[in-house]
Amino acid sequence: MSPSLLQASAASFVLLSIGHTVNGRQWTSDPRFRAIAGTKPWASGTVGWYQGSAFFFLTGLLHYQWSRDPTALQDPINKAIAGIVNVLLWSSSAWYVKHGIKDNALAVGLSAVLQAWGVVQAIL
Length: 124
Description:
The chain is an all-alpha fold. The chain is built from 5 helices and no strands.
């Protein structure tokens, strides 16, 4: 069993984390968003966005750990984590498509494919 797909999946999550952070800097500088500065939606939106970036990075570390020991994905908890992450990726990609944000949809969708492929290969 080759861990390279899981390593590639780990790298995709790190790239998603970086892209997510950069994208957050763009939308938080939007005048409409700045107009609500200091409000609960502004605070929640900002911190939540960067928590999402940290989630992507953390998930990248988890996939890297799995690449070092793919047998860890035989454990039901790790399978559940992998499944939840994949559902989250596909749901996010679909949401982006629905709202016409094609570049994000493509990036997240490609990461979903890579993640699923790597995890399934490790499980089989």
